[in-house]
Design a protein that fits this description.
By secondary structure, the chain is of the alpha/beta class. It has 9 helices and 14 strands.
Length: about 250
């Protein structure tokens, strides 16, 4: 039986069953829990039936996948619980393990979080490095505004509809970009008092624009960030710093 050693949120059981279908050997997978469910220490989440050789061949593949993804789901759930009283929703980032992005983002959803863009193809984020190589002004417009207009013109030329998000580093940039109404403004590395001012400025100039806080946010600080009134909080630590959920394979004859 696949047994958890500590309390948490389980994820990766569907992936584990899929893995068993792809490897040689005949191992029967009998789930005792579902992805996204809360589990207690000592609880069996699945049973494996088959030859000893086949079970031992797949043991660590299954443990690695389920432990890793359950750790992400558990970490995400801890963040989500801390902002339950506020409107802010918890999002992941693209700071994922190479080759594991879909799995890790799935685990975030199992923990109650939401997914940011998966790649460069499903949303446009204009970051500080893009603005760093752009003219300070273009046709009399600040760089942040010109960048939004350029992206929208490109999307229109391709008959595409995508979310346009732009990253700002200070309140002056926020004031500049709000009149052109990007879908989302990412407030990068701002302290809670500054975030609160940003929310007030947004409410006055463009209340339809979504504000996302990001940058170095931890469990110890996330509640203070949520209290500012931002709509979204993105946390890279959901995927790049989550500890694996301790699990083991116990024989039960």
């Amino acid at each position: 039986e696949l047994v958890v050693r500590q309390k948490g949120i389980v994820a990766g059981l569907v992936a584990a069953e899929t893995i068993l279908c792809e490897v040689e050997g005949a191992v029967r997978w009998i789930p005792h829990a579902s992805d996204g469910s809360a589990v207690e220490a000592g609880q069996a989440v699945a049973r494996l039936e088959g030859s000893v050789r086949d079970i031992l061949t797949t043991e660590h593949i299954l443990l690695n996948v389920v432990s890793r993804l359950s750790g992400i789901a558990t970490e995400t759930h801890a963040y989500v619980r801390q902002v339950d009283a506020f409107k802010a929703e918890i999002y992941d980032t693209r700071k994922t393990t190479p080759g594991w992005r879909r799995l890790e983002k799935y685990a975030v959803r199992c923990g109650g979080g939401r997914n940011h863009r998966a790649g460069l193809y499903d949303a446009i984020l204009i970051k500080d490095n893009h603005l760093a190589v752009a003219p300070l002004e273009d046709n009399g417009m600040p760089a942040v505004c010109a960048a939004c207009d350029t992206v929208r013109e490109f999307l229109a030329s391709q008959s595409k509809e995508m979310i346009v998000e732009i990253e700002v580093d200070d309140l002056d940039q926020l004031r500049d970009v709000l009149p052109v109404s990007p879908d989302i403004v990412l407030l990068d590395n701002m302290e809670p008092p500054t975030l609160k001012q940003a929310v007030s400025i947004r409410d006055q100039l463009a209340p339809e624009v979504i504000l996302e806080a990001s940058g170095g946010i931890r469990r110890e600080t996330i509640q203070a960030v949520a209290e500012t009134g931002v709509d979204r909080i993105s946390v890279g630590g959901l995927t790049h710093s989550a500890l694996w959920l301790d699990m083991g394979l116990d024989w039960n004859r």
